[in-house]
## 1
Amino acid sequence: MKLPMRDAMARQADERVAGARVRLPRRVVEKPLQQVAKRLLMALGVLLATVLIVYLDRAGYHDNADETVDFLDSVYYATVTLSTTGYGDIVPYSDSARLANILLVTPLRVLFLIILVGTTLEVLTERTREEFRRNRWRATLRDHTVIVGFGTKGRSAIQTLCATGLRKDQIVIVDPATKVIDAANADGFVGVVGDATRTDVLLRAEVQKARQIIVATQRDDTAVLVTLTARQLNKGAKIVAAVREEENAPLLRQSGADAVITSASAAGRLLGLSVLSPSAGTVMEDLIQQGSGLDLVERPVTKAEAGRSVRETKDLVVSVLRGHRLLGYDDPAASPLQLTDRVITIVRATPVTPLTTPDED
């Protein structure tokens, strides 16, 4: 069994070998051609400034060829000086020319060299900044939500979570496809590229510190393995998994899932309900879509509601959660309500604008 420190060291070593698996949302940057054009213009500006300085003080320079320095000689001197070639055929000999070289030409030479190696410096800076952002992200991430799979089910789950006010920086996407993680980054989510059935991949997503985990894979056997691995790493997280076949639901529960959603059966029941009553199907679809129309909300019982009947609450109560028992609204045991109860109610949706935390460099 690995120690936490060894796990962290192994995870960082694996990232250095296999590349940056954790991908944070990137800022919008300039196009490469625009960056190159801007640098060329800056280099040209430095060159022209040096030519102007030399030409204005050309009387203080000595040319070994013809004793005088004209405009072409000024361009020639500026070019060989900025490129640090320095043939020595044109030299400053007056005090003013030498002072100008010390105070003006030398800083311009340094600036010219910085522009020339700007691409390399930018790459190194970007790598350092990315490593800093990744380390800071790991250090500050707590009680987040891990979504395994960024397909239709995963995206729908994220839409529901964001509609309830969950911030994007509190969601981590895990998917084996690089293009899928790129799409998640474009939407503002942190992504981890890799197979979620592997322990090291889930550790990169900091699943051991997560508050809730949603398993929305395409295959049921993959969902079982992901749930088993996630439960071993985090004993207290709430794990919700989706399966295609209803017969695999008990296996997911045995693997550690707190709730299992059978996607094929749920869709089939909604289809059947819509055939019998299209209006009822519309209402059910509205209920499972957070943030618009009617919402199903679980909340604690207030002090004013404690001791009263289910029908005396301000909201429409559907069920009462008492301990581990789920009681229907018409169950005699549901009333009177207790202060430790939680109620599942139908309320009018109040759209919530998700809060996003801007990236700091």
## 2
Amino acid sequence: MTAYQVVYRTTNSAGEPTTASQFLVLPKTFGRRLPTVAWLHGTIAYRKDTASENPGSSDRLAAYLLASTGRAVSAPDYVGLGAGEGFHPYGDPRATVAATVDGLRAARAFAHRNGRELDREVQVSGFSQGGPATMLVGRALQEEGADQYFRLGALAPVAGPFHLSAFEAAAADDKIDKSGLYLAYFATAWNKTYGLYSSPSEAFRAPYDQIVEELFDGYHTTEQIAGALPPASKDLFTSDFLDRIRTPSGVLKQRLHALDTTCDWKPNVPVSLFHARGDKDVDASHSAYCAQQLKDNGADFRLTDIGDHDHNGSVEQALPRIVRFFDETADAD
């Protein structure tokens, strides 16, 4: 297989032109036409930790694994990460879909110049943040006509925070691992994107209000951020801001609703949800929440508990199962 970093044009959360990058892997097969997978990564704060930039990235390994089965793999870094421009609008539906679909278009054009063709049906999978992203991209391809060429083939999200308002409320109550860091990334990114507070001191306690936004500029590593901030939300945020997270209103409630309903539609393709009962970051209730929305819409899905593993362990356990699921889906066509 051969791997590339591809920089391409897309749009940001405001719909404005920007650039993004992706890790593209093309397998070495005898056939000209290639089955296609989009792999959507989880939370990344440091822009160089993406698959296209970091040789040791777990997402790069995931892309290689998927490509080893004869598939072309498009693994977008998302807007504001990797070699792209601007900041990362963490979880924003508009930018997430744009970076993924435009990444697939760029992958198709690149493959064509190399004498290969990508299948129209694209199988979509992703981990953690990439779980809701998987469902957002699937809905855009199936229901919103996001691309004239690509069609949805299958969906396989892993350990996604599908009930984001509940996830952030749990982070506010320090009920998840690394709660303060998750919530700080969320708060600073969403403030840039949507406007959540008028000044950092409104959301963050001193002295962290003086440094937190700079720490989440995309150029500080996770270790640097963790070393500078307390791990608990109660020590990092003001009590008023934590109350706002627990009982959101206004623009926060509106934006959270969009990410509480990423599974609230009926895919016309097979869906396989994966979670680990040992996950202390995104617990299994989130996959159950997604499954209930799919069930209410009459969708065809399966929900698999892959065992007593932690958050990162869940994706390691899920990937071989995703390959088998995608093989089954392709064989059924």
## 3
Amino acid sequence: MDFYTEPERKIEIADRTDVLVAGGGPAGYSAAIAAARNGADTILVEQFNCVGGMATSGMMSHFTDGCDSPLFDEMMDRVHRETAGIFCPAQGAGRHQISHELLKKVLLDMLTEAGVRLKLYTFVCDSICENGRVRGVVTESKSGRKALLGTITVDATGDGDVAARAGAEFQLGREEDSRCQPVTLMFRIGGVDYSRAHLPGSFEHLLDVPKGEIQALAREHLPAPAGHVLVYPTWLPGEVCVNMTNVTGIDGTRAEELTRAELVCRKQMPEIVLFLREYLPGFEHCYLVTSAQNVGVRETRHFKGLYTMTAEDIVAGRVFDDWIATHNWFNFDIHNVEGAGLDKDGAQKHFSARGQYTIPYRACVPEKVDGLLLSGRNISGTHKAHSNFRVMPICMNIGQGVGTAAAIAVRDGVEPRHADIREIQKALNQQGVTV
């Protein structure tokens, strides 16, 4: 292997802040809003031109039913208040359907109103660590290589890039073989006749159409590992959001593999459109409108925290003493790591639990790294538990709790692991979060 040695250089410290949030997806923008509203000077760093992550640049179709969250409700209330004169909702689109462009605006409004300082078009490329403590991050942008320092750093990058570069211990993918859930490139199609269209929205949504059962037809006619039908209504007349591209065996922490996934997905897209035209009523004249800015990565690193969430915690509806995210519910949405459809360890229609569950603060605190909190799908949890808490509303819930905890830790001058959980929960109660 050949190497190039970079000349030593000084990096400008471009800014300092109380709470530094890396990543502007649901777990990141929620953490930033919560930290700022709790009095912390807060910076949010995002690599793209907008915040929202998979809900905007990733073009996800909808927010799942995943939690009771005052911050989520506030966001969706604002989205629906601002639709008048801008968008005409399509028949069948509901409260949780995502208007990608409008959501970009609403989230930027919420962040700026909270006083969050935004750094868009900025990629976090390294951690700044001293004696086992994260002091900030190194970024790259059109402005060059810069350092940002934060009293507390929140890693909301999804893949846990900050934590990984700080040396935090993690498990990639599932425990037995490190395989991760497949990746998907979302896209939208137009020309759909809503008056006749049926929209299969889950792997277990079996639909008889004139030429057979639609999921069986997909497995027969789409190029593997594609082979299921997941289509959802949008806010735009005649448009449908498609969640059908599929690439297995991808490590989403490697740019080379993300490039391969992008190429495979884009080859699948025309064949998916042709399949829908031929087999799904109401789609006879559909056509490609637009596609996401990035592939959707469901799973990569699971970091080792002070506690590891398990599937049993979720099924039991466990309420932890150190809760920071409450009233969560979902299923084990494990996409098949070997092909299309639901994985053998997943459970959707047949999922059952004793009640709603909470996320413990301990699962958001890396075991051996200080100055750092985890937020979103990168928290400490098993492969199966992750398939439940990875969904966007629950990541928003986690983000609100983690952002609040970061602000309290800064206020009290303590490391995140020593933050007073009762003070954190008191602050969350004041934001409308209940057990």
## 4
Amino acid sequence: MEIGSDQTPLTIQVVSDGRTGMENQALGLAEAVQRLFSSRIVVKQIRWRRAFDKLPSALKARWMLDPSSDAVEPAAGEAWPDLWIATGRATLPLSARVRERSGGKTFVVQTQDPRWNIAAYDLVVAPAHDGVTGSNVLSITGSPHRVTAERLAEGSAAFADRLEPLPRPRVAVLIGGRSRAFDLTETHAADLAGRIATAVEAAGGSLMLTFSRRTPAAAKAALTARLNHLPGLIWDGEGPNPYFAFLKFADHILVTEDSANMAAEAASTGAPVHILPMIPLKPADKFARLHADLRERGSARPFDGSLNVWSYAPLAETDRAARVLLERLGRG
């Protein structure tokens, strides 16, 4: 389906707690819809007052929202959006009531596993590795995201003069950090850095390294100290974010196993994705299921210390979710 001039544009409201990883899921899905059907996207960010943030979703009311939150309901005389796309635990109490408050005028989509009141949403776009089921559930590999060829080209323009001349293969390394399921200690980070350095040096390539907000300072320092002699760029968090540029110029992408988002985004590029091991803190079955799914698709393999080359069809699950959404909305 392509955008036509005779379409009445959809109004899409994207709602999250404002964290980049959360917002990008809902916004990525909205942008995929927009590529297929003329749409106007409005982004809203909300958060709850500290005293009420930990309350179960069923007990939260709108008056408990922090005053800094955007208004998510239309003012008097304004129309409800055609489509509400939200992600994250913080949005659940609001999403669950939209159909009722809008009089059924708004189609409600929740990404991730809500773990609460699944029937309240018109469509739940959930990672297959979470095992969510239901007539209104669409399971996809990974999570929705904003990575497209066009966005990578746009995001890489400012870094082209620094990255394009780098020796190939150009190796992007995406480092996560401590979570409930994994840890990244200084010792483990140093070991990973040694293995990565050996692989890049053996291939005569270059490095493009970035960290997440969860990367422990000691691990970050260990990786930087061991890898900063390699040709390339290590982003220290200052200035424009080269993340999209790294994905655009990468011949290989190494991703720590703690991030489903980064793995899915990497697999959308068509470059070989190598999964870097971390220290498990508890059984991480859902991550194992995701990585198995990516292996079956030919996208990813465990990092074995080498930079073997393979090809696969880039992951396009966000676009698939957008098509299903429009079909459910009656615009397909």
